[in-house]
Design goal:
heterodimer; A: mainly alpha; B: mainly alpha; 9 helices; 81% helix; 0% strand
Chain lengths: 188, 173
């Protein structure tokens, strides 16, 4: 990125502007971090209260029937279903640090069936994890608050809508492409 | 609108009541969590310094505008504001770079502008696809990922289009 900026800047005769911007950017990063600290810390605190009061367990129980249908190959495997349910719950609550180890535990166990190759259920798990389903996007909200926005959470409905669409498309794409790949591999 | 402005205080209140009902030491848990938030900030600050420097330089050099101009017809067709092109390009690759680019967009266009909101919704409704795939398949020892990447990128693209559309629907611009 820096190289592109220097090349493009000198080509366009904007060398001075680029030099000034380099220093400005570094200062802006520190300012941004400081000004978003309050909101971000408050929300990680709220999430910790939720976590300790068992919100994840409750959500997992609610999600289990839905997840059984999404991962039919592992619907009888308790350990995998428990890990996936906990992974999705942690993702919903925005506990990324908790979600990843849980998801990896499920992925490891699922990959035992087909070592080295991603089976359909494993593809589904990873695709679902690459689509954000966080209910309260705290980091983004704190960035908005840092820029003087008085209602940083007014984007929530839009975020939910966009997340729902992106997850639905991801799941559909995984299902459709799964069929395509199965056909291709069958022919080989 | 009034429900949404009260959302944060109501949510805080509900969490506090629910936490006490579940016999959680609410204050202690809150401060522990806030400490974790500080650690998150410390972890993203160094990369944010590097990346915002690069983003500011890139913007000043005119490279971003050139790229946006190139892709503008396609993006307009999809209903995505061309100004967000930088965000679209880095989002699947690096989370902190996306945060840097997004924060810059929100700062220069304003958090309540259409572009600022679109950038925020895009950040909130997508993930760092390549990183996630690498972490999961690295841990599971999977070498043949089959259709994971195309399916995940479909979800990302849908997320970007949906983000621009959702902002138009929710804020009527």
């Amino acid at each position: 990125m820096v190289l592109a900026a220097v090349l493009c800047g000198s080509a366009a005769g904007r060398g001075e502007a680029v030099a000034a911007a380099a220093l400005e950017g570094a200062g802006a990063a520190v300012e941004l971090c400081l000004s978003m600290a309050g909101v971000l810390c408050l929300w990680t605190g709220v999430m910790e209260v939720l976590r300790r009061s068992g919100a994840m367990e409750g959500l997992s129980r609610l999600l289990r029937p839905l997840l059984r249908r999404l991962y039919p190959a592992f619907s009888e495997d308790r350990e995998v279903m428990d890990s996936i349910a906990a992974n999705v719950s942690a993702n919903l609550l925005g506990l990324g640090n908790a979600a990843t180890p849980l998801g990896i535990r499920a992925a490891r166990r699922m990959s035992r069936l087909t070592p080295g190759v991603a089976n359909d259920a494993l593809c589904m798990l990873v695709v679902c994890n690459t689509a954000s389903i966080q209910l309260i996007p705290t980091t983004v909200a704190s960035v908005r608050a840092a820029q003087g926005c008085t209602t940083p959470f007014d984007i929530l409905p839009a975020v939910w809508l966009a997340s729902a669409i992106s997850v639905t498309v991801g799941i559909t794409a995984a299902k459709v492409l799964g069929r395509v790949w199965a056909l291709r591999e069958g022919r080989l | 609108m009034s429900v949404l402005t009260m959302l944060v205080p109501l949510l805080l209140c509900a969490v506090a009541i629910w936490g006490s009902a579940r016999r959680v030491d609410v204050f202690e848990a809150l401060t522990t969590g806030a400490g974790e938030g500080l650690q998150i900030l410390l972890r993203i600050l160094p990369s944010l310094v590097a990346l915002l420097t690069a983003v500011y330089m890139l913007r000043a050099s005119g490279a971003l505008e050139a790229c946006a101009e190139l892709l503008a017809p396609l993006l307009r067709l999809l209903g995505i504001p061309p100004e967000t092109v930088g965000l679209l390009l880095v989002r699947p690759v690096s989370g902190s770079a996306a945060l840097g680019v997004g924060a810059e967009l929100i700062a220069s266009y304003g958090p309540d502008s259409t572009i600022g909101r679109t950038a925020a919704v895009m950040l909130g409704s997508t993930e760092t696809t390549f990183f996630t795939i690498a972490v999961y398949y690295g841990a599971a020892g999977v070498r043949r990922t089959r259709y994971t990447l195309p399916a995940a990128l479909c979800a990302d693209l849908a997320g970007f289009i949906a983000a621009a559309w959702a902002v138009r629907v929710c804020f009527g611009t």
